[in-house]
Amino acid sequence: MPGFIGEIEGVEHAVQISEDIGYPVMIKASASGGGKGIRVAYNRKEVEEGFPAVRAEAKAFGDDRIFIEKFVTARARIEIQGDGPISTATSCISSKRSARSNAAIESHRRGAVAAAR
């Protein structure tokens, strides 16, 4: 997965990294979770607006490190992280959410294609 390992110095550095990786990118606070501290940027302007917001949220988590990586819209696998045993129910819920997300993405794509015609 294309991404950046190291300290991101500021907004201009974040833009440079994002352009090197290629849009869309995900800007994520390293200590975030549950969808908090994450922004998806599809262009330079969204990085310029999103990076400071993520940095502020990262500080609230007590760790201001930020990751930038390629945002993948079509999921190929499901990653589950945990400190203890992971139940089958949790895995099934994650699989169903992934399937719904993929269906929503595909529906949005089809709508955009139809609108362009």
Short descriptors:
4-stranded antiparallel sheet, 4 strands, 14% strand, alpha+beta, 117 residues
Explain what this protein looks like in three dimensions:
The protein has 117 residues and is of the alpha+beta class. The protein contains three helices and four strands.
Q: Name the quaternary structure.
A: single chain
Helix and strand sequence: EHEEHEH
Instruction: State the helicity in percent bands.
Output: 40-55%
What radius of gyration results from the CA coordinates?
16 Å
Output mean pLDDT: 76
Strand content: 5-15%
SS field, number of helical segments: 3
Question: Count of DSSP E strands?
Answer: 4
Write the layout of secondary structure elements.
Elements: E1 3-4, H1 11-21, E2 25-29, E3 38-41, H2 44-60, E4 66-70, H3 88-116
Antiparallel strand pairs: 1-4, 2-3, 2-4
Helix pairs in contact: 1-2
Quick take:
By secondary structure, the chain is α+β, with helices and mostly antiparallel strands. It has three helices and four strands.
